[in-house]
Design a protein that fits this description.
Layout: H1 2-24, E1 38-39, E2 48-56, H2 61-73, H3 87-95, E3 113-122, E4 130-131, H4 136-145, E5 152-157, E6 162-163, E7 172-176, E8 184-188, H5 191-194, H6 196-199, H7 222-240, E9 247-251, E10 254-256, E11 279-280, E12 287-288, E13 290-291, E14 297-298, E15 303-305, E16 310-312
Parallel strand pairs: 2-3, 2-5, 4-6, 5-8
Antiparallel strand pairs: 1-9, 7-8, 9-10, 11-12, 13-14, 15-16
Helix pairs in contact: 2-7
Keywords: Apoplast, Secreted, Signal
GO cellular component, one term: apoplast
Organism: Hibiscus trionum
């Protein structure tokens, strides 16, 4: 009888669990769930990844320099040895997915070098202040890549520009262009005006009344430092699944990449509304979890480490 009741309770709770997840659709829990980042047969980006960045609207030097310094930091192993962890160690976790590819050779994963190959600024808002994925983004991609199919477009929005789909559950995204020539691209929203509570967190109080510490941006600009977080996530997810059929964790209708499965985690003890324990710069008070190029500090989103089966937080 006892075991029958236990079975019944178990069945009931499983049913409730499935129902609540299916209804909400986005109930993956980065703090407790154990994702399975499997390769789904598709490629990874390897070798050199060339980016073409389109700064759309008036993006000041705070945004441009902070994002470019982050990219330069991905392979910057120099700097003071005591400055740990480094951005390069975060990137090594992303690179390590290469050793999980079916054709991988034993040994350390090769370096993946990310370069800014082209940049273009559109300060006159030629296509207006709302960019749609169907109409405006393809035009900008064509413009910034000059038709080069081997270069990855990254469209970055100024504070007064809205990109379709951003600020509604996503702060940046890795998407594919339309067939027949599908290829990856990244969009990066700007949280300053549109959604500071959603995409400016943890440098801005979180929306939905979640209470927790608000961090100080390590490079002094809430939007710029928050855009590094969202761009870094999109980059990690794109490199490991450029055609959206590489590494991801399937969760209902969502395919979550190495950074998406660790969303909201920046340090030990992270919980909803709380980014977790991070370092603070004694001079500026800026909060960070990784050192980069030219003594810069960054707050990077955790990434799933396939070796330790946990979110890498430095
Ligand atoms: C951040 O920098 C941008 C320009 O790059 C500027 O428009 C914005 O006002 C700055 N924001 C803050 C909070 O300082
Ligand atoms: C690969 O990257 C590491 C830093 O992670 C660097 O020390 C090393 O020199 C790089 N190797 C090559 C061949 O570029």
């Amino acid at each position: 009888m006892g075991s029958f009741i236990r079975l019944f309770v178990l069945a009931l709770s499983v049913t409730l669990l499935i129902n609540s997840s299916a209804v909400a659709g986005h109930d993956y829990d980065p703090y407790n769930d154990k994702p399975e980042l499997k390769n789904h047969g598709g490629p990874m980006l390897t070798g050199t990844v060339n980016l073409a960045i389109m700064w759309y609207g008036y993006c000041g030097k705070e945004i441009k320099n902070t994002i470019r310094n982050f990219i330069k930091s991905l392979d910057f192993a120099g700097g003071k040895p005591k400055h740990q962890p480094k951005v390069v160690s975060w990137w090594e976790v992303v690179e390590s997915y290469q050793s999980l590819m079916p054709e991988a050779k034993p040994g350390a994963a090769a370096n993946i070098s990310v370069k800014v190959a082209k940049q273009s600024s559109e300060k006159t808002y030629k296509l207006g202040m709302v960019l749609t994925l169907q109409y405006h983004i393809p035009k900008l991609i064509k413009h910034v890549t000059k038709g080069d199919p081997n270069i990855i477009p990254v469209i970055v929005a100024a504070r007064d520009v809205t990109i379709q789909g951003v600020c509604h559950g996503k702060c940046a995204d890795h998407l594919l262009t339309e067939p027949p020539n599908r290829r990856p691209f990244i969009i990066v929203g700007n949280p300053e005006v549109e959604c500071p509570g959603e995409c400016g967190w943890p440098f801005h109080a979180a929306e939905f009344g979640l209470k927790g510490p608000v961090l100080k941006p390590p490079n002094g600009n809430m939007s710029a430092d928050a855009m590094v977080v969202s761009f870094a996530s999109a980059l990690a997810d794109m490199v490991t699944s450029p055609m959206q059929d590489g590494f991801y964790h399937s969760f209902y209708r969502d395919n979550l990449g190495p950074s998406a499965v660790c969303k909201g985690i920046f340090g030990r003890g992270a919980a909803p509304g709380n980014p977790g324990q991070v370092q603070s710069d004694p001079k500026t008070g800026g909060n960070f979890n990784a050192y980069g190029y030219n003594n810069k500090r960054f707050l990077l989103p955790a990434v799933w480490n396939p070796k330790t089966k946990s979110c890498w937080i430095g």
